[in-house]
Every structure is written in structure tokens, then in C-alpha cells.
Amino acid sequence: MSAHKLFISGKWVKSTSHQTFKSYNPATEKIIGTFEAGNQKDVEKAVAAAQKSLPFWKNVPAPQRAKILFRLARLLERDKEKLARALTEEMGKIISEARGDVQEAIDTAEYFAGEGRRLFGHTTPSELRDKAAFTIRQPFGVVGLIAPWNFPIAIPAWKICPALVCGNTIVFKPSSDTPRSAIQFVQLLVEAGLPSGVLNLVTGTGKEVGLSLVKHPEVRMISFTGSRETGKTIVQNAGIKKVGLELGGKNPIIIMDDANLELALEGVLFGAFGTTGQRCTATSRIIIHQKVQKKFEKRLVNRVRRLKVGNCLLSKTDVGPLINQRALEKVHSYTLLGKQQGAKLLCGGSSLKGKGFFYKPTVFTNVKSNMRIAQEEIFGPFLSIIPAKNFAHAIKIANNVSYGLSASIYTENISFAFKAINEIESGLVYVNSSTIGSEVHLPFGGIKGTGNGTREAGIEGINEFSETKTIYIDYSDKLQKAQIDEFKLK
User: Fold this and answer.
1) Is 412 a catalytic site residue?
2) CATH number assigned to the domain comprising residue 353
3) N or C: which end of the chain has fewer CB within 10 A?
4) Are residues 242 and 259 in the same domain?
5) Identified catalytic residue from 280, 377, 456, 464
6) Region at 26 (left for phi over 0; alpha for psi -120 to 50; beta for the rest)
7) Is 246 labeled as catalytic in the residue annotation?
8) Per the residue annotation, which of 246, 297, 456, 464 is the catalytic one?
């Protein structure tokens, strides 16, 4: 068992709290390390370090800042297998998905390193003679980044890479369920040559570390991925600063009666049970045309019962553990709730005996759209099947939730496909593909209760972590008054 420290002002240090907490392997329940329980004083020190390094870092030319991200990408490639295996041990996703988690960080580092040569503003003509008008991108200053446990390498990369290339300095708080992965990521950034104080890491609870970071008056921007309830708390306490929130989903796959059912089945299995359903884009609802419901259910149950749950380091394993005991209990409470509200359990519905937080892949059918299992984010291997009469009915059901992150439709009808793209209320829409599988060069984020307009990844990641400054340069040698002076052709 290893002991880990905070990273402040370029040094690995102990918390002023003199307290630690443990992180556990969710498959074995064994302790994998001890970590510093940071507090408000540690946050103050981290913010001060970030403030001190800001004047230097924001004036480093963006292409030079980007070189560090290019080096980071190469280091992530070098250590990909080691990081993936450590990630599987700490978070519990199967090894192939852990490799994908690290690969996403590699791709993200490369993409935002490329943006270091761009950071585009806009140039536009002035309404007056001898006057230039354009915009530039500038950093916020000190930013607070709060990351979840389900993608402990990829999501920190989504936040840290654009924040750095835009010239911000950072205080980073990872999830207390996966602090080791965050520390390994920071260690690689240090190896890549990131100057002292530009990135600071404080582990600890959301109540102690996260809230102190959110409330800090010198932190100019907060980026948070996690639960909606925590998102509400952040908004209530952040004050006047930029706040970016990504708060989950209740994502549907619509299966029309003309769909390729085998293709749809593969998409459902991957979307619902990949990462043990612990993705904000996980498929939580199947909205299926009643003409093909029974046929599809038979195939689905047959395949779900064959999914292998267990040791995530084995290539044959399909489904790993939930992150902790609390998550296990939450998923099972929804199984009991589904039964109480009259839905029919087709398979699963219980935990596995022995060590680890394993839960059987669970499928309910005859679910009504207003049932809690069809409305609330469960974050586990849990799927609800809701019958639909026709396309319009399916769209109505899809939109009848408070979230709006990701959605999919399986159909061979091009009219249905394009109407679904326009009518489904979500930030991401897939056609004949699952609800998961975002690529780093395209924006990621949702609408409605999923967030507050935040879009990470792609060019929107640059917009998310920088401010627009508008510039006017008048070289007419006289006072010109926009909207007041009348332009004359002669």
C-alpha cells in the first residue's frame, strides 16, 4: 500500500489537516493507497501558488504552452498499459475500456496542443472608416477543476489540456474514489515540463476541498463533472465566476420497427453495460416500437445473461464492479423500486456473492415513462424497456425526462433519422450507433438538467476555458462615434 501527497507549487506535500483517507479496489475491496485529506488551508495554498505562476504562464506563447501537451501525449503513450492496469484496479472498468480511457487522454492532449497554434479570434469590418475590429482569446486566470471517478484519466485531460493551452493556471480536485489516477496524470505533466505552480492538486472531500475551491474569490472559473445535486450546490456557492457543469443523463435508444435488430442489440449492450453503466452517456432507456418489442427482448435477455461479470483484467470479462458499496446499494434500490411500481424484471436484479461491488446486468420491461426507473439517473448496469406505438410516440417518450445529454435512434428510414436529429432534446444524437462513443475533436455536453450550456472537447473546449476580448483600433486621427456618425459615400 502506497502513500500519496498533495501537489502544490511544484512540490509533493502533506495536508495541513494531518489526516488521510484510503482508496479501495472495487473488485477486491483491498486498499490500494492512502491519500491526503486536504482542507481549506490546502486550497488556499494551492490557489496562491496558481496566482503566483499566472503572470508568467499566461505570457508564455500559446505554441510553447502546447509543446508541453505534445510531450504529455507521448508520455501517456509510453505508459498506456501501466496506466490502464492501474486505472482498472482503482476504478473497476474492464481493461479494454481502461486502455480506451488513456487513449482518450492521448487524443485530447494532441488535439489541444494543436489548438496552441490557433486560439482563433474573429476579424470583422468596422462600420467606420480607418478602424479595425477583432476579438482575441484570453485566459480566465486561476481555474478550479473538479473531476469525477468514472473516467479518471480522460476527463481530467478534457479539462486540464484546454485550460493549460489557453493560459490558465489550475487547482485540480479529483474524485476521492480515484485519486491515484489523477496523481499519475499530474506526474506525467511534471515530467513533460510543466512549470511549478501552474497545476496544483488537492485531494479530499467535496465538502472540504471542493466547496472551498468553489467559494474562493480568486478562482475565476469552476469546471465540474458529476451529479446534478452537487451541481446545484456549486451554483449556489460559486458567486460571480464562470461555472461549467456537466451533470449526467437518462439516455434513450429508440429502436424503430424497421431497424437492424442485431445492430441495435450490439449498441444496447455496449451502451447499457459498458463501464458497468457508469457513464453519463450510458444507455438507460430502450424505447422500442411495440411491433418488434418481444422479438428484441428475447434476443437481448439471451445476450445479457451471457455477459461475464468479474475480474476486469481478464480479456473475456464484459462487466466490472460498481465503484463502491454505496453505488451497489443505490442500484439495488432501483431494482426494488421497479418491482414496486409494476415493471417486469427480465433478468439480473441482484448483487453477486463474495468480495467486490458486483451487480448483475439488469433489464426491466413494460416500463412506463413516468416511473422513477425511467426518470432518474441510476448509474449502473440497469436498463428499462419502454414500448412505443410509433415514431412520434417514441420521440415524446425520449424527451419526457429532465436530462438531455445523449440519444440514439436505430432505423433504416432516412426521414425518421433526420426528424430524430431535429426533435430529440439532447446535446448528442447518434443514428444507428449507441449513446456512447464521443470523439475528442467534437463538442461534448447536454441541455436541460444535464448542465448549464457547458461544452467540453473540440473547439468548444477552447471557448469553455478562455474569455473573449473585443478589440477596436481607430487610426483615423479623429473621434468617430459608432451608431451616431452618419456614414457618407462622398
Assistant:
1) no
2) 3.40.309.10
3) C
4) no
5) 280
6) alpha
7) yes
8) 246
